[in-house]
Every structure is written in C-alpha cells, then in structure tokens.
Structure prediction request, 330 residues.
Amino acid sequence: MSNLLSNVYDEDQLLRTDIYYEGNKICGEGMALNMSYRTFTLESGPSIIKFEGTAKDATFECMLDSITDNSIEILKLQKKLLKSAFKNRSKQYNFLLLNDELTNNLVTDEEYEKEIEDNPEKYVIEDRHEELKFSELKVLSSLVDELNAEKSICSGITVDEISELFEVTLDNLMNLLEENKNLNGRIL
Amino acid sequence: MAEYYNKDESIEGNDIQLVSRKFIFSGLHDISEIGRCIKYQCSRDSYAKVTKCLLPTEKQLKESSHIEIEDKICSKDIIAYHKGIRRIKESKQSGFSGTHSTGVINTKSRSIAKITHPFESIQNSINKYQQQIDYRNILLKK
Prediction:
C-alpha cells in the first residue's frame, strides 16, 4: 500500500479502514466485523474517482472528513476560486486605469464608452454567483485564512468583497448551517 | 421613513444620497436587473438614504429592501451601486463632526445600497458550528 492518507480504526466495532492514493485514485480498504454497515462512494470530475467500501455511519463520516482534508477535489476548488479572484481583480484594475485615463483627459468620453462597449470582458465584473455547499465554504474560509497569513492580503475583507472576488453567494449561509444541523450533524 | 442598522439591510431608489468619510471606487459591475453599475464602498461613518423612490413599474432587486423616501441605512461599511458607467466624484461637506468633514454623492440614477459586514463574522459562525459537530462526534464515539 502506497501513500497512505489515513486510517480509521474503531476498536469497539472491530472495524478498520485504510485510505490511500494509488496513481491518481483515492482507494480504500476495509475490514469489519459488525452487521450494521453502509456502502459509500466518492465520485468526481470527468475522470471519475470512485471510492467504495462499507462502514458504520460514524466511521463513514470520519473517513469522509479525512478524505476531504486531502482530496484532489479541494485542490480543484481552490484553483477555481483563485482563478476567479485573479480574473475579477484584473477587471477592477483595468477599469480603474481606464477611468484614470478619462479623468486625466487622455481619452475622450466617446473613446471611454467605446472601449467598455467593445471589451466588456476586460472591464465588467459579472453578477453571476454560485451557491456553496458547507464543505466548500470551509475550503473558502481556509483559503482566506491562508491569504491573510501572508502579509494580510485579505485582512478586514467584507462578505461582499469575498462574494464579488470568488463569484460565490453567501446569502444562504444561515440556511446552509440549519440544513446541516438537520442532517444529524453530518457535513456533506 | 426609518433608520436601519442591521447587517444586510438595504435601500433602493432612483436617487440615493451616500454620505461617508471614505469612498472607495471599486469597479464596473453588471447587475442583471439594473444593467451596468458603478460600485462604491463607503467605509467610515457612512449612511445612505433614499431621496427619490422607485417607480411602481420598477422591480426591486431585493425583496427585503426599504424603498420609502427618507429610508436610511447607517453603518461603518456600506456598499452602493448606481446605474451608469461613469464615476461620480464626491463633494466635500464640512461640519460632519467637530473635527471631520465628509464626502457626499447623489447618485441621481437607479441605485441600491446595502450594509455589509466582515467575512470574519462568517468564519466565526463556521468555526462555532464545526465545534458543535466535533463535540457531537466525540459523544457519538463514546
């Protein structure tokens, strides 16, 4: 077994499951001596990562948590968030430059309007926001923490700025927390 | 006509007066119901009030928005959008407080202003919630 990610060992239930990478796949190997099991799978993306196994509910959650702490999914999501943040900051910067040129009379009103009309993708930030799952919100939160740690790039950033930069909506946050509570505390 | 101080409270109108000691001009946005809008962040001693109502035919962007004339939101952090692609320069007004003057912007177009809050408050809610889940899992294991 190579690249062991984690193992879950439940002494009371005599159940042990190892989770590890094999090439690009996350695999699991389990052994259980209890009758009440549950099957689970983890699938993702165009090249499917599938994880199958059996475990009791609580063990399953521990396992899922340990996978999501390391998974490729998180890296993909982080990449997507950072890409949209870079894109939107660039648009903001381009527009500020253009506006500066207008105030310094380097471009005329007509040229200014034409430039925006011809190249909206360069200047206009779209109001297209995705709703997040709770697990994704945790990824976003840790990403902001990381950015904060490096010379306080995001210190004092507001909810609205986060929403604009990362193209996500945080209006449904309270519903999200309530929904998760109703799922008997399972974070999925 | 009322004043609102809670987070996410918003006002909408065809003319909004923005008053703040610090305006940050922050880009051009495309909002589906309004069109292209300029955005401002007001980040010190700010308030915004409706000075001209929406027409009955105009749809509100947020259902919970206050739209009556003189409806006012007050907070440290307010964000505002007004229709158009040109920045409105703020005019300085003295006598805001004993020591400070303030900036005023009258948008004179379809506008929305909203109270915002730091992302840290959301992070705190997540952490608090996560602690509850962890505690629950420990109890389940026992």
